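User: Sequence recovery, please. Input:
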């Protein structure tokens, strides 16, 4: 049986996807499958995914959460690893570390140290986000990013997966939900890097407002989140 299922939601990601898949290819742990959950791409996204041997599944254009749920439904692995198309695994031991942490039975999931790729100001802000993920894991009020999220599949299924009514910070919502079932860990030994294209496209203040709104509803006003947090595709900004 496959150990780890890597799930990547996509929509017109030809610019980034090959880099993500190439970084997976370099992993020392090889017992994995790649599932690209595509939402009607009109560019070469599907072609690139197939070139790298990924399983491609199609779904409606509703955002990362629904796409990740679709991928999880067909996943054969005991462990799920969600990452974005604009994310690369900078450490070749990432998948091995995922297997190690879950197999220890101390943790149900977690994330890795992460950095951003872009302007210095945006990288520093992303570093603050990384620090927040570390601190939140210590107090088990986890802020786990969806581009860097591994979890035991059984726990994911039992939790109901991503809430498809939430289009912003659905990853934070899921991490809070599953933290009631066990401990999530921040793994310092591995590192992932993702693009900061939302900052680049939308600008600093609008992007900060975007995330602040999501965290406000998820942490402080969860009941109203479904009607307030709508998916905003980066490529349509």
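Assistant: Recovered sequence (237 residues):
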């Amino acid at each position: 049986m496959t150990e780890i299922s890597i799930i990547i939601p996509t929509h017109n990601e030809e610019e980034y996807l090959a880099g993500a898949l190439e970084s997976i290819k370099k992993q020392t742990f090889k017992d994995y499958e790649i599932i690209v959950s595509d939402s009607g791409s009109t560019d070469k996204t599907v072609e690139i995914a197939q070139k790298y041997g990924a399983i491609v599944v199609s779904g409606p254009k509703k955002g990362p959460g629904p796409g990740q749920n679709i991928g999880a439904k067909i996943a054969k692995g005991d462990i799920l690893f969600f990452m974005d198309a604009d994310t690369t695994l900078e450490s070749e031991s990432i998948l091995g570390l995922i297997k190690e942490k879950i197999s220890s039975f101390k943790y149900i999931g977690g994330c890795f140290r992460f950095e951003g790729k872009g302007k210095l100001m945006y990288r520093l802000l992303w570093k603050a986000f990384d620090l927040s993920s570390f601190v939140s894991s210590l107090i088990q009020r986890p802020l786990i990013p969806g581009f860097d999220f591994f979890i035991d599949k059984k726990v994911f299924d039992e939790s109901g997966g991503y809430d498809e009514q939430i289009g912003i910070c659905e990853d934070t919502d899921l991490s809070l939900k599953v933290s009631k079932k066990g401990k999530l860990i921040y793994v310092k030994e591995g590192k992932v890097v993702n693009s900061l294209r939302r900052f680049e496209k939308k600008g600093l203040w609008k992007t900060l407002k975007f995330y602040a709104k999501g965290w406000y509803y998820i942490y402080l006003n969860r009941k109203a989140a479904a009607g307030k947090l709508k998916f905003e595709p980066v490529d349509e900004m």
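The chain has one domain: 4-236.
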